[in-house]
């Protein structure tokens, strides 16, 4: 019996391979591999999709976040509020510009930043708030923007996993002051390598990011006005992304259908907590991440083993699953200098011990999904006491 991967890019390529091949060959024939029409065309199309006036393509989602903070002149002595339950890049870029990440706990049902705790974390050193639309579920942006406006703070949206997600019919990345996207291959809109983009409605911020992404120069040549970086999206990736952007809404709809079917098949299964879409938001399900909570008799260590036992059973049955994320950022070795302690952000810590992401991709067939669910049910029947 064939193994079920967490994400299968080969299925996508079977559908759009001819278009992707033609786009790549057109770039190769053009002789223009850095910048040019393909990059500019993608920037225009992606800005229109997000409904912003500006889009600046760059090398990765990490660079998008880094460039956004650089453009805001955030640095040593500044604080940026964010979540401890996400990929390291979110906090990493805050540290990379010399600022301090201030972690706020998450909501149990969305895994996103707990807005009830954000305001209490604001100090005179706070410059920005960086929400993460984790697993493709949008943060309640109107409420967050009201908090930011009251305290004159900038909102930088980490949309790496949420391209196409919406709150009240507005796409994430176009609600905050700046949106940052990743086009890593496993994202809903993925390149065939690294890639990223920044979206904004502020032309000055856009101009600064364009300058910083190209060694601190505005018009090419050898005149540099800032210490920049080399973070240009190459033309091959831009051409591939142009092809894929045409399919994005269809793929997101298919992901939503897969998530709905998981919910239907698993809603009455004991021993798990299913993910929820926030009321008012429209998620795009980059991951389908459920929780395997502990029982009253289990210690934290027992719970960690229980989630891992389920994962090992699935793996033995040919079903791949993932753990995003096994250690919250405030407990990472790199942040121990900030004297972060176990128990400081309880929901994030609990989630790290309980989360398990099932296979999720647009082409996941009902038959294959049935195999995943059957294996999970079989395992839970043996693990739950």
Describe, in plain words, how this protein is organized in 3D.
The protein has 385 residues and is an alpha/beta fold. It has 2 domains: 9-245, Aspartate Aminotransferase, domain 2, CATH 3.40.640.10; 248-383, Alpha-Beta Complex (Aspartate Aminotransferase, domain 1). It is 41% helix and 12% strand. The protein contains 12 helices and 12 strands. Strands 1-9-8-5-4-2-3 form a 7-stranded mixed sheet, with helices on both faces. A hairpin with a 2-residue loop joins strand 6 and strand 7 (170-171). The longest helix has 22 residues, at 9-30.
How would you summarize the topology of this molecule?
Layout: H1 9-30, H2 37-50, E1 54-58, H3 61-71, E2 79-82, H4 89-96, E3 100-103, H5 115-121, E4 126-130, H6 141-150, E5 154-158, E6 166-167, E7 170-171, E8 178-182, E9 196-200, H7 203-213, H8 235-245, H9 248-266, E10 281-282, E11 288-291, H10 300-316, H11 346-354, E12 355-358, H12 366-383
GO molecular function: pyridoxal phosphate binding; transaminase activity
Protein name: Cys/Met metabolism pyridoxal-phosphate-dependent enzyme
GO biological process, one term: polysaccharide biosynthetic process
């Amino acid at each position: 019996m064939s193994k079920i991967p967490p994400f299968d890019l080969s299925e996508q390529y079977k559908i759009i391979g001819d278009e992707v091949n033609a786009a790549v060959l057109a770039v190769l024939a053009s002789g223009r591999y850095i910048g040019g029409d393909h990059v500019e065309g993608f920037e225009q199309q992606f800005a229109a999709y997000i409904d912003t006036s500006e889009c600046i393509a760059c090398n990765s989602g990490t660079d998008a976040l880094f460039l956004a903070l650089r453009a805001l002149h955030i640095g040593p002595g500044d604080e940026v509020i964010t979540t401890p339950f996400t990929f390291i890049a979110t906090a990493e870029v805050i540290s990379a510009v010399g600022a301090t990440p201030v972690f706020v706990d998450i909501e149990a049902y969305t895994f996103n930043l707990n807005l009830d705790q954000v305001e209490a974390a604001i100090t005179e050193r706070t410059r920005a708030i960086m929400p993460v639309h984790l697993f493709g579920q949008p943060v309640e942006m109107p409420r967050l923007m009201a908090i930011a406006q009251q305290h004159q703070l900038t909102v930088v949206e980490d949309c790496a996993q949420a391209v196409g997600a919406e709150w009240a019919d507005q796409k994430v990345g176009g609600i905050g002051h700046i949106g940052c996207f990743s086009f890593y291959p496993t994202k809903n809109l993925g390149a065939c390598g690294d890639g990223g983009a920044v979206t904004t409605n502020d032309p000055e911020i856009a101009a600064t990011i364009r300058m910083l992404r190209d060694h601190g120069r505005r018009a090419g040549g050898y005149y540099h006005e800032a210490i920049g970086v080399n973070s240009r999206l190459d033309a091959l990736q831009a051409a591939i992304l142009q092809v894929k952007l045409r399919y994005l809404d269809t793929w997101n709809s298919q992901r939503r259908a897969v998530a709905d079917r998981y919910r239907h098949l698993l809603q009455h299964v004991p021993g798990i907590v299913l993910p929820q879409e926030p009321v008012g938001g429209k998620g795009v399900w980059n991951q389908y991440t459920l929780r395997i909570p502990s029982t009253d008799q289990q210690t934290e260590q027992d719970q960690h083993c229980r989630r891992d036992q389920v994962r090992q059973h699935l793996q033995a049955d040919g079903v791949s699953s993932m753990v995003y994320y096994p250690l919250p950022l405030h407990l990472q070795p790199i942040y121990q200098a900030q004297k972060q302690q176990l128990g400081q952000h309880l929901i994030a810590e609990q989630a790290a011990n309980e989360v398990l992401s099932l296979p999720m991709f647009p082409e996941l067939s009902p038959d294959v999904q049935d195999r995943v669910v059957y294996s999970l049910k079989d395992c839970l029947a043996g693990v739950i006491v």
